[in-house]
Amino acid sequence: MAILEVSGLKVYFHTRNGVVKAVDDVSFSVDSGETLAIVGESGSGKSVTCYSLLDLLPKPPAKIEGGTALFNGHDLLTCSAAEMRQHRCNDIAVIFQDPMTSLNPFLTIGEQLIEPLIYHPNKDQVTSRAEAKEKAVALLDEVGIIDPEVRFDCYPHEFSGGMRQRVMIAMALITEPKLLICDEPTTALDVTIQAQILELIKKLQETRNVAVIFISHDLGVVAGIADKVMVMCDGTIRETGDTDNIFYKTKDEYTKKLLAAIPEGAKTLPNRCNTDEALVEVTNLKTYFRNQAAAAKDDESQFVKAVNDVSLTISRGEILGLVGESGSGKSTLGRSILQLAPTTAGSVSFNKQVLTGMTPKKLVPWRQKMQMIFQDPYASLNPRMTVFETLSEPLLYHGLATQKTIAAQVKTLMDDVGLAQAQLRKYPHEFSGGQRQRIAIGRAIATKPEFIIADEPVSALDVTIQAQILDLILNLVERHNLTMMFISHDLSVVRYISDRVIIMNRGVIIEQGDTEALWAHPKQQYTQDLLSAIPLADPVSERNRIASR
Amino acid sequence: MYRFALGRLLQAIPVLLVVITVTFFLVHSAPGGPFSADKAVPPEVIKALEEQYNLNQPVWQQYIGYLGDVLRGDFGPSFKYSGRTVNELIGAGLPITAELALYAMLVALGVGITAGVGAAMRPNTLQDYLPMTGAMIGICMPSFLLGPLLVLIFGIHLDWLPVSGWGDIPGDKILPSITLGTGYAAYIARLSRGGMLEVLSQDYIRTARAKGLSERLIIVKHALRGGLIPVVAFLGPAFAGLLAGSFVVETIFQIPGMGRFYVQAAFNRDYTLILGMTIFLSTLIIVFNLLSDMLAIWLNPKLRHELEGAKS
Question: Pick from A107, A116, A293: which is nearest to B305 by CB?
Fold first, then answer.
């Protein structure tokens, strides 16, 4: 018998702008020891589905309009608050997406771990503090926290993202739940950490025989671990079935679109770079930040060496991919090249002209030639400026347009990046994430730059939108004869777009080379680990890969 | 933490010097002097008085001399309360005003936090609107209106509480404390509501719910600490404000605190008393701000660690 049986679930959000059917008539079931993956893009209702089971949605605006969710025969949707506490304590646990924000920064992780045990609603299940600690330390050890006895008394900020997610997992397992809901547990993590966390969840599931609902936007992530896959879009189920059927015998059009959007394989366009002429030359560049928490002043540790002695050249016309995990210094390197971060030593030259040490005033004409596309289109556009203002500002500032020609020039830009001209007077919040990134790209190419640094331009976007934006970028590079440095943590994306790749870690370059050559024969251990951690959207090879690790 | 506190105290020295200098030259440049009165006084008397208090010297000499006195902790003699020093006057008034301010603060914290947290738990319901409307009224209501109003209702109409004095009749401390605390209670209610709403929407509150903790535990253990940080940061300025702003309430309820000295000194051109009070209150403001900043830092483990790291 299925441990959880959901049928006809409807969750609507009653907002000022009308009713949003976040989840509309969704049915599924999970057995003990089974993993169900719910896959969909943002707004598909996958998280709302699971949060409604544990009454974790803000009400209002959310309202459960219908359906049943039977957990071992008890309906979760109609039970009392006291019964719900029982389910939360004993039966169902959740691992949330962002381990940075999902742990309370004011309490030690130990305190947060033992809470469900020492404040258990059932008198006979209340555990003493000492006993709970013993159990928590054992669990921390099991999820791979080194020195758990000591780390028990640490606060969340003393852990890295991957370690926090391990703590989250321990916290979810401490009550020995029968159903574990994982809401995008690896989305905020680096690819090597993601692989470790996925393995850990898989292992813990097998030893404990719990049922798992695994929510993800990434079909690649679920391929290796899911038994069943349910694809959702706009609050409805598009397709449910065995993992192999979903991947190999796809029926639904939307699922096909999702699978097709996963960047796979090599760059299809030829390398446009045909000279050895270096456009950007970086020599022994160092960017250090002062470490606020450092000990003595004269100590080496007072500096965070974000970029530590990096030298590279970018030839005219090439797309250089820069790959690294979080904290590798890749974004700082990008900003340092554009003189947006203060460099400590070394030089950057553009078109044979040394930029380091220039006054801000002297840099102005060079800024026109070098532009940047930022990661988060929600944060990098000024919310109080219309699209027209955002796009016209650089043109007017650099004297590339006059009041007479500006309207026509901005309209051309809108066409270039695939936005309707009628939307010129709108503000950023009126656009979707993908459209916003188009605006940000339009702003970057407005001044007709020769060189663009794109810093994770697609990592905040859904996979289908990501594919569109990547194609737009490739298209613009071709048409405007651009040279580009493309920064990303996503190896598949970098492979899809770059001619040459640089792998960075801890502020230094680990390895570089032509993309396909490097993919085929990575020389460094770090690169090999990185490449082998990429999840593949192919269940069979993914299972083999996990088994072989 | 010590280094942080020491640094902040060192920063306070130039601030205090500016305060002393500006106040000193302002009061001396104001027309009239401590001994110009309505009644005509013989010039030789004034001259003798000015000599006695060194007022015949050039202003800059008086300034240097005064700075030296202040360094030794001596605010000099009062010009109007003859035979008494400024130190004595502050010493006599401070305990009473401090007690009043303390009670007012307790009223403000108790009422403000209860109302604010209650409102944040059920936003946009009656439990939110009622206390917040009350808070709005509390902020708008000046104490010279609220004081007499309370006196009328509880002192005269209902005859429950005494209407004036301090420590003479049991219960005479209640009305002044409420009068002084209400404005701050209202402000604290709004601060704590805002802080709690912010915290309650955080992901880690959802985590706590998912763990099956009771709603009471979630509020008390998980939300309050972060939610009340804005209130903690406000405590320092608020306490200094209570001490400095007690004049109206002290006048209404005939309380012999130090608030009245401040106002009377200004009317009387009592140079040393004005200066003494100003320096004393500025020091209090600086110290209380520092204390509340330190408390806010101590409450946040991350900031605490960073400071401790900088110390060792």
Answer: A293
Joined tokens for residue B125: 């319901």
CA dihedral (B57, B62, B64, B68) positive or negative: positive
Q: Does residue B198 sit at the A interface (CB-CB below 8 Å)?
A: no
Q: Among A86, A116, A157, select the one facing B302 at the smallest CB separation.
A: A157
Range of the domain at A504: 278-548
pLDDT at residue B111, as a whole number: 92
Residues A452 and A482 placed together within one structural domain of the fold: yes
Shared-domain flag, residues A375 and A423: yes
Sign of CA dihedral A269, A273, A278, A279: negative
Using an 8 Å Cβ cutoff, are A386 and A424 in contact? yes
Q: Measured between beta carbons, which residues in chain B are less than 8 angstroms from residue A107?
A: 221-222
Q: Is B3 on the interface with A (CB under 8 A)?
A: no
Do A340 and A461 fall into the same domain?
yes
Task: Decide if B212 and A171 are in contact by the 8 Å CB cutoff.
Answer: no
Q: A260, A293, A319: which is the final residue of a domain?
A: A260
Q: Which residues contact A212 (CB under 8 A, 6 or more apart)?
A: A30, A34, A35, A36, A179, A180, A181, A182, A201, A205
Confirm whether A13 is domain-assigned: yes
Summarised one tens digit per residue, pLDDT across range A48-103 is 899 998 888 887 788 888 888 888 888 888 888 888 888 888 889 998 888 888 89
Tell me the backbone φ, ψ of residue B233, rounded to 5 degrees: -65, -25
CATH number at residue A520: 3.40.50.300
A309 found inside a domain: yes
Residue A152 falls within a domain, yes or no?
no
Total domains in chain A come to: 2
Domain annotation covers residue A244:
yes
A336 and A458 co-located in one domain: yes
Asked whether A465 and A433 are in contact (CB, 8 A), the reply is yes
Closest chain A residue by Cα to residue B309: A293
Q: Which of A80, A88, A102, A173 to mutate to test the interface with B (most CBs of B within 10 A)?
A: A102
Q: What is the ipTM of this complex?
A: 0.77
Q: What domains can you pick out in chain B, each with its CATH number?
A: 93-268 (1.10.3720.10)
Q: Provide the angle, in degrees to the nearest 10, between the axes of the packed helices B86-121 and B271-299.
A: 40
- Distance CA(A174)–CA(A136), nearest Å, equals 7
pLDDT at A299: 57
Residues A237 and A282 grouped into a single domain? no
Task: Write the pLDDT tens digit of every residue in A419-432.
Answer: 888 888 888 888 88
Q: In this structure, what are the phi and psi dihedrals at residue A505, rounded to the nearest 5 degrees?
A: -150, 135
Give B92-144 pLDDT, tens digit per residue.
888 888 899 999 999 999 999 999 999 998 888 888 899 899 888 888 888 88
Same domain assignment for residues A339 and A250: no
CA distance B49 to chain A (A): 58
**Spatial contact of B190 and B184, defined as CB atoms under 8 Å apart:** no
Question: If you measure CA to CA, which chain B residue comes closest to A115?
Answer: B213
Q: Does B122 touch chain A (CB under 8 A)?
A: no
Residues A9 and A83 in one domain: yes
Inter-chain CB proximity A101 and B221 less than 8 Å = no
Amino acid B36: pLDDT: 67
- Among the three residues A232, A260, A288, which one is the final residue of a domain in this structure? A260
* Residues making up chain B, counted from first to last: 312
Note whether A115 contacts B207, CB cutoff 8 Å.
Answer: no
Question: Are A289 and A417 contained in the same domain?
Answer: yes
Chain B residues 216-245 with a CB less than 8 Å from chain A: 217, 221-222, 225-226
B208 to chain A, any CB pair closer than 8 A? The answer is yes
Q: Tally C-beta pairs within 8 A across A and B.
A: 87
Burial tier of A63 (Cβ tally within 10 Å: 0-12, 13-18, 19+): middle
Of B83, B78, B79, the closest CA to residue B35 belongs to B79
CA A459 to chain CA centroid, Å, is 6
